[in-house]
Amino acid sequence: MLISPATAAGIADGTVTLAFRRWDRPRVRPGGTQRTGAGVIRVESVEEVDPDTLTEDDALRSGVRSLAELRRLLERRSGARVYRMRVCAAGPDPRVALREQSELSDEDRRALDQRLDRWDAARADGPWTRDLLRLIEKNPGVRAPDLAASLGRETLPFKRDVRKLKELGLTCSLPVGYEISHRGRACLG
Questions:
Q1: What topology does CATH give the domain 5-92?
Q2: Rg for the chain (alpha carbons), in Å?
Q3: Which of 8, 64, 73, 114 has the least CB density, counted as fewest CB within 10 Å?
Q4: Quick check: pTM over 0.90?
Q5: Domain residue limits, the chain
């Protein structure tokens, strides 16, 4: 489920407690979580609703200014059913604390090296993880398509690789491009 930065911030501060989506079937489950720029969001409940029963209060609780605007947003989507999800903040994104680590314990270093080595070994065209970290370190804030092109790669597979590194707390997304984290520098050091 895509959550805009403004909605994620509203969920984090408690002003947004509902989300509505038009889908053919539910794409999230109660208890599921999603990491956002504002922290981890938890889906507490998912229920199909009749769009004609939505209220102004539903719109406001979903961070939308009016019921008319909520209906317009839902009508722009293609799905047969409308779902109401109760959402809440579930804590900070654990990757943030990882990114801030400027020193690695021997155990952390071993675990990171093993993971990166495994990813490198699985790639038919050879090792890539540390090269990608060095590229980001030397080119902070450069657009993903430009970084990918510098390696002769397509953008979407390149972004998937960067997300893998981000999951380990080694990179950070910027409004444009990426930067290497403190943990990423420690990993390369």
A1: Sulfate adenylyltransferase (3.10.400)
A2: 20
A3: 114
A4: no
A5: 5-92, 95-188
